[in-house]
Amino acid sequence: MSQPLHGYRVVDFTHVLSGPIATHFLRLLGAEVIKIESAAGDTMRNYGGVQYADGMGPSFASVNAGKKSIVLDLKQQDDVAVAHRLIKDADVVMENFRPGVMDRLGLGYEACKAINPGIVFCSISGYGQHGAARHQPAIDQIIQSTSGMMSLSGEPGSAPTRVGFPAVDTYSGLLAAFAVVSALLQRTRDKQGQRVDVAMFDAALVMMISMVGPYLLTGKRPVKQGNRGYSMSPTADTFPTAAGHLTLGAVRQDQFERLCRVIGRTDLVGDPRFRDRASRFGHGDALQAEVRAALAHRTAAEWEALLNAEGVPAGAVRELPEALAQPHLDERGLLLALGAPDGPGLRILNAGFRYEHDGPGVDAVPPALGQHTAEILAQLGYTPEQITAFLDRRNRPA
Amino acid sequence: MSQPLHGYRVVDFTHVLSGPIATHFLRLLGAEVIKIESAAGDTMRNYGGVQYADGMGPSFASVNAGKKSIVLDLKQQDDVAVAHRLIKDADVVMENFRPGVMDRLGLGYEACKAINPGIVFCSISGYGQHGAARHQPAIDQIIQSTSGMMSLSGEPGSAPTRVGFPAVDTYSGLLAAFAVVSALLQRTRDKQGQRVDVAMFDAALVMMISMVGPYLLTGKRPVKQGNRGYSMSPTADTFPTAAGHLTLGAVRQDQFERLCRVIGRTDLVGDPRFRDRASRFGHGDALQAEVRAALAHRTAAEWEALLNAEGVPAGAVRELPEALAQPHLDERGLLLALGAPDGPGLRILNAGFRYEHDGPGVDAVPPALGQHTAEILAQLGYTPEQITAFLDRRNRPA
Fold it and tell me: Which residues in chain B have their CB less than 8 angstroms from residue A202's CB?
């Protein structure tokens, strides 16, 4: 038994975030990922202040563990020939250049398919490979703007508010990995390659499916709802406490009754204003004032424990460091510790799900730029002399 | 040739959002999805004001198209026996009850594996199937609170701000679909079933990988950065215009120079305060004031067109209705129109990626509650009399 993608090879032309996240998932599931880099390297290598090792920025180190790095100058025919030889024996090509760039380099889908009819060729772009918008440059925050995403977060009537992390990049990367693995499964039966076209704009809309779907059906314009949850229940919201904020998710009648019991306000259950779901919606402000007053007597952490013990959904609002310090993360194996005992250590996130056997994981650190150039050329049959000449010719890092 | 999951059967015990989204992806890729519902139906059926048909709320209609609905009372042995027979011939079981519930119903992983050793059994829960936090009730907004997500959006120093749509649900659903398809691919080789355990808390951290990764490496506490993009560049931010807001993503030097040209301020390029990336960071407020003044002369839509034509990443901030009205969505086939010409129509989102052949899609509407109960029982070999008795006995919708 082995990991799902054991024995699969991915030729990875991606850079920055969405593409490297996609191939990170494939690597975590056991694929061999050969990262093609220019002599300057993936932009993210030198990005962000603190560095891990070999000049690697933290964002780069987070999503490139265990990949192999080969430096190629894709404007040189010799180097494109190396890429072609890698693609010949590969299962997946992943790229996130602007649409048309791979074609111009002689590395587009048609060229790859001619070399390897079974190839699964996946592109990630802002607006897709075809159509009027394909040439528009796009990064996460642009798509957050044009897709409607910035119109959803924050208090009603507030200015456009970005989701404070590159959610479109991370969702698009996962979506691409999903599409690729599905195509590989498809290929086990029909023996055909596949062209996969992921547009970040489309992915953003799918990520917002629970807002987009109702709009498509009802025509009703979605509005910002602050911290109220999807239910819009007054007791599914975030409140201040004696220390820290607490989010309640008391949506059902039984949860509301248990909430009232825990906060010592069973009288609210009998109050005609709050008797049932509809009444509570009609008197939301009054109900929230009562709840807020009661919650002021204890800390968020205390309420969280008390409420969870009674089955009321509740969570203290944490920042990332406190979230990562939760003891159950160790039990879950979500954090992977990489690096030799004598070298600099590195902790990264695993894939976010567990298997019973042969599950996600990686035990190698991210590659230095061009770390595997010579090794990969040797595997392709280049002689030591040819490899030396190849490296010297372009004065590339080895 | 056929869709990737053609011929695969999913027995779907999920409800609300994360689970139904996971099986929605599997259905879009061609799987048969048999949705097990109680006589009351999936909570989301009656959720939200406007309804599609048969009493279906909009959120339900968005993520259940083409699934088959069978009503079972899982507290009755006869009905659990029906579930067992379905699982015997299935490839995937998906569930998102609280940990332990499926075991108590006689439908846990061990029971399913005994019936069908090749089964891929996937659970989605708040904090995972094992460990101290497993029994904590969790919904999207609770996980957004406890995972650190609410500490990232909004202006520096602002109160905790929820991502204004159930991002954790949608990401967890996609992650579960990815994990399941990967396990199915794994199974083609090792012939073994798999247990998949998706925790929404873990998924939330992975969705924030570009914040979590750097924190794990640097120990530096992430702070809210308003609408500035991941680059933190002063010209990667959202600005008011003569009409509407515009987001710029001018990160690189060449993009900055082209931005200055388009807004008619080439003088800024030569200004020593803004000469290079580091200088611009040091004089961010002054630079933003200049850019803001220039952008006031045209509308966001005008700037978007002018800047994109020059290769400067830029996007007008749209709300969802305007985003969905973009012409390239039709070219992309992102919207699926369902329903008979004589019945109520329904538009839903497709999977968010395209294939060259046999790609994602569905052409059937969401099922009425129990619409397929009799059909499925007949397929299992029940006689018409037995089916009638089964339906009558529990007075269930047929």
Answer: 329, 332, 334, 352-353
Listed as own residue / partner, the contacts of A43-49 with beta carbons closer than 8 Å and 24 or more positions apart are A43/A15, A43/A16, A44/A15, A44/A16, A44/A17, A44/A20, A45/A369, A48/B214, A48/B218, A49/B218
**How buried is residue B277: exposed, middle or buried, by Cβ count under 10 Å (0-12/13-18/19+)?**
middle
Banded model confidence at residue A328, pLDDT cuts 50, 70, 90: confident
User: What are the tens digits of pLDDT across the range B88-144?
Assistant: 999 999 999 999 999 999 999 999 999 999 999 999 999 999 888 898 988 999 999
Structure tokens at B195: 């247990």
The set of residues, in sequence order, having a beta carbon less than 8 Å from that of A341 and lying 6+ positions away, is none
CA A118 to chain centre: 27
Q: Which domains does chain B have, with CATH numbers?
A: 9-207+331-393 (3.40.50.10540), 245-316 (3.30.1540.10)
Virtual torsion, Cα A339, A342, A344, A350, nearest 10 deg: 20
Please, are residues A36 and A13 in contact by the beta-carbon 8 Å criterion? yes
Indicate the helix (H) or strand (E) that contains B32: strand B32-37
CA–CA distance, B376 with B3 (Å, rounded to integer): 23
- Asked if B324's CB is within 8 angstroms of A205's CB, the reply is yes
Nearest CB partner across the interface for A174, out of B50, B161, B178: B178
- 3-state helix, strand and coil shares in percent for chain A, rounded to the nearest 5: 40, 15, 45
- Per-residue pLDDT tens digits for B197-233: 999 999 999 999 999 999 998 899 999 999 998 788 9
Q: In which band, very low, low, confident or very high, does the pLDDT at A324 lie, cut at 50, 70 and 90? A: very high
How many whole angstroms separate alpha carbon A271 and alpha carbon A258?
Answer: 15
With 0-12 / 13-18 / 19 or more C-beta atoms within 10 angstroms meaning exposed / middle / buried, residue A382 is middle
For residue A217, pLDDT beyond 60: yes
Residue B353 has a pLDDT of 98
Residue A276 amino acid letter? D
| Strands B32-37 vs B68-71: parallel, antiparallel or unpaired | parallel
Contact flag B319-A209 (C-beta cutoff 8 Å)? no
Query: What gap in Å lies between CA B316 and CA B48, rounded to an integer?
Result: 30
Give CB contacts under 8 A, 24+ apart, made by A277-280: A277/A233, A277/A253, A280/A233, A280/A234, A280/A235, A280/A256
| Tokens linked to A322 | 């406190």
Look-up: residue for tokens 């040739």?
B1
Cβ distance of B150 and A320 shorter than 8 Å: no
Q: Closest to B147 (Cβ–Cβ): which among A21, A201, A323?
A: A323
Nearest CB partner across the interface for A320, out of B215, B238, B355: B215
The beta-strand segments (E) located in chain A are: 9-12, 32-37, 68-71, 92-95, 120-125, 194-199, 238-240, 245-248, 314-316, 335-338, 346-349, 353-355
Q: Do B62 and A212 touch (CB under 8 A)?
A: yes
What pLDDT band is residue A398 in, cutting at 50, 70 and 90? very low
The per-residue pLDDT for range A235-277, each reduced to its tens digit, is 999 999 999 999 999 999 999 999 999 999 999 999 999 999 9
User: What does chain B come to in residues?
Assistant: 398
Sequence-separated (6 or more) residues with CB below 8 Å from residue A74: A36, A38, A80, A83, A105, A107
**Distances, alpha carbon A397 to alpha carbons A38, A368, A370, in Å:** 10, 9, 6
List, for residues B260-270, the tens digit of each pLDDT value: 999 999 999 99
Query: What distances in angstroms separate CA B42 from CA A139, A305, B39, B132, one per listed residue?
Result: 37, 29, 9, 28
Cα-to-chain-centroid distance, residue B51: 21
Does the CA dihedral A9-A15-A19-A23 come out positive or negative?
positive
